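Example protein was shown:

_____
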Amino acid sequence: QVQLTESGGGLVQPGGSLRLSCAVSGNSRNLMGWYRQAPGKQRERIGIISSGTETSYADSLKGRFTISRDNAKNTVYLQMNSLKLEDTAVYYCAYFGDSGIIYGQGTQVTVSS
């Protein structure tokens, strides 16, 4: 069973940057992605990354968020720049397996002045 552990969340001022990490135990070569869920809202997909380097993003986040991976370290990253108040959410790493999507426990990102 694949397990995902996110880290890197925290408090950041508007306009700032954060990089989230997702450590993958087990096979990390599958399609992976990042999601987020703000208070009172549905979980939304930020983007996905193939086993190589192909990425796809939600239109609203293109240009500010970047997903990358280091297969040698079994880690997927989410670089977030120019953060806005509305980016406050719990951020989840996702693994697309044969049986469905596996999520990590999430890491809180709070954007506040």
The chain is about 0% helix and 55% strand. The CA atoms of residues 11 and 99 lie 34 Å apart. The two ends are 40 Å apart (CA to CA). The first strand starts at residue 3 and ends at 7.
